[in-house]
Amino acid sequence: HHLYALNPDGTLKWRYETEGDVHRSPAIGSDGTVYIGSEDGFLYALGPDGIWKWRYQTQGGIWTSPAIGADGTVYFVSEDGHLYAIQGSGPLADSPWPKFQHDNQNTGRVGGGRCAYGGLE
């Protein structure tokens, strides 16, 4: 139940323990805040140094990657059947690093601020 951050050379930068499994990629705000959902029902916000900033509890697991809107709002879907919109710390970071099962062009953005997408099965 950990989220890992690696340095460019592949060495461990930091590790953060969650209370449940993490199945998707995090979203990263322009200030470096890392947003990640967990099977434990929490959306976690971590600083770029891996230090806990806050967490938000839902009534179900979070199995999707969060998305960050143009205004910095963090969107995510929980197994409780709700789409959440939480004020984050800024817009999506301009980052070249690869994202799990996505590329830098389509992960974490929310339809130009016009719509949000999420899915539950």
TrEMBL record:
The family database entries (InterPro entries) matched by this protein are listed as: PQQ_b-propeller_rpt (IPR018391), PQQ_rpt_dom (IPR002372), Quinoprotein_ADH-like_sf (IPR011047), WD40/YVTN_repeat-like_dom_sf (IPR015943)
- Enumerate the Pfam families for this protein: PQQ_2 (PF13360)
Residue span, Pyrrolo-quinoline quinone repeat domain: 3-87
Checking Gene3D superfamilies in the record gives:
YVTN repeat-like/Quinoprotein amine dehydrogenase
Q: What is this protein called?
A: Pyrrolo-quinoline quinone repeat domain-containing protein
Q: Which organism is it from?
A: candidate division WOR-3 bacterium
